[in-house]
Amino acid sequence: MGKEPAKREIKQERAARTRVEILEAAITLFARRGYLSTTMSDLAKAIRMTPGALYWHFPTKEDLLLAAIEELHNRYLMEFAPLLAERRILSGREQLVFVVSRTSQFLRYHREYGIFFGMLSAESAESNDRVAEALREKISLYVAVLTGMIRYGQKRQEFRQEVDPVHMAHTMMGGYLGILLHHNLYRSTVNYDPLMASLDMILSGGLHVRGPPG
């Protein structure tokens, strides 16, 4: 490899690392302060970068937000690679347990990710149609997957037939985001795991049939 291609590759790798660092810092700051109250200058200061350098990577705050949404979406999907490989041999209940468990663990160790989505959903719904649409697009994908699992479980007589799969899937997504925001407010006195366990118990009680499938 010649010197010029090698230098170009090094620059590209450095730019990619810098981009990830910017996104990580932005997600954390937006989760703490909300995106309406956070400026590009705030972000540049948080990551010890000049505003000009930050604007080189992301021309606008909206561009940064959209990139952060895409980044978190990709990270979340990686959690479910094992499920995609084994989905055909799992029951609807097993699939749902896998999703619930992985989601709880993912948000437990990356609390700011869920808060970011929750805060952004609340703020963008009334202030930024483009960001709101990007969020709806990603969340709708999760809802569609959950809906398919619930319908599969209903077909196998694992889940109650009167449950509306779409509404239940939306309830699950809203419940997880809501729990994170609630826990963020009460984190000094309320533990995360019991909150998630209680939510899972409520959802399971409303979805699973009583006793073994008939």
TrEMBL record:
UniProt cross-references to Pfam families, sorted A to Z: TetR_C_13, TetR_N
Source species, domain of life: Bacteria
DNA-binding feature ranges: 39-58
Residue ranges of every copy of the HTH tetR-type domain listed in the record: 16-76
Record keywords: DNA-binding, Transcription, Transcription regulation
One function term, GO molecular function aspect: DNA binding
Listed PANTHER family: HTH-TYPE TRANSCRIPTIONAL REPRESSOR NEMR, TRANSCRIPTIONAL REGULATORY PROTEIN
Descriptive protein name: TetR/AcrR family transcriptional regulator
